[in-house]
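Raw record, unedited: Translocation protein SEC62
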Amino acid sequence: MAAPGPNPQQMAAMQQQFAAEAAKRGMTPQQFAEKQREQLTADAAKLGLTPEQYVLQLRARAMQAHQQQYQAHQQQQQAQAQAEGQQQPQQPAPQQHQHQTTQQVPVNPNNPPDPKAIAVANWLRSQNLKPRTCIMDGQRKDMFKVKRAIRAIESPAYAKAAAKKNSLLPPVTDRASAENVFKLLPLSLLALRVTKVDPHAGHNHAKPKNRTKGLWTVKIEQHQETDPMMHYVWLYDGPQWKQKAMAAAVVAGIFAVVLFPLWPMMLRQGVWYLSVGMMGLLGLFFAMAIFRLILFCVTVFTVAPGLWLFPNLFEDVGFFDSFKPLWGWQETKKSKKSNKAKAKAESASAVESAPASAPSATTSSAETTSAPSAARRNLTAQVEEVEE
């Protein structure tokens, strides 16, 4: 019978005892732990072992001693029960099962992730968990809440995906099974629980003024729990086939450029003509930009306020809209204000004429449609104002 591991109360007592030992020596727990590491390295060097081998040897001895003490305690209880004439209750299985459920499962980062955990992570990454960006160890990561992941695991979409043939998704029947499925992520180091920390804690300088609102700086917590309001951060980025494909394309492009002298003559001539054509278009564009600037400088003094060729050329519009209209007058602040005032006046008149009777509404609509058309015929071309 394997001896059960220490419960949370025993772990807390061990931590308190460790802190007390450090306080006796006038050191902080971190300094005391560092001193113990140095002593451990020295002891391992005396035995001709590495620190990892020496730690494994000490753990094996401690586990063996703990198991012997547990077996001796069980034998003592059996002997006492037989002496008192009481039969020992034969229910060790539930007690052992209870110990196994409460015992923390060790996580070995060297082991490969569980295929079921990878399947759950891939499925959750495809769902809308409303992730937010956070900073962990100086890197940007995606963070999500536990309640949204549990809700997605309990959804019919997960049940449908788990019911497919050759699916690695574990089945979910109730809330407890959904939490057990979610616990596969931290066990395989695919997602870990984090909490918000102040990156400037312990510093004497003031907080920066240009801090991004809502961008948390987080740290990994030791206890991985599944409270609905807790936050987890993704350490699993999903399948890397896209990154690999892009890297392969970049390498292939570099090889193609390096091996350009070995290309067939037809391909090399085509690339040469294409490059000459692109350079010609680029030169034509710069020539047009210089010509329109010279034309504007001349017309500013001759025909004020100045004429622009392709006034929307450098505006934030589409490619074809950059060449519309062909020309336009330079707009001043007064013209912009007058255009805005006219637009407001036209909108106000349209609102006032709306509640009129049917015949008058028809007449006014005809007049308003004819008036702008006449105004458009009399207006000269002007630069369009792009409002964001």
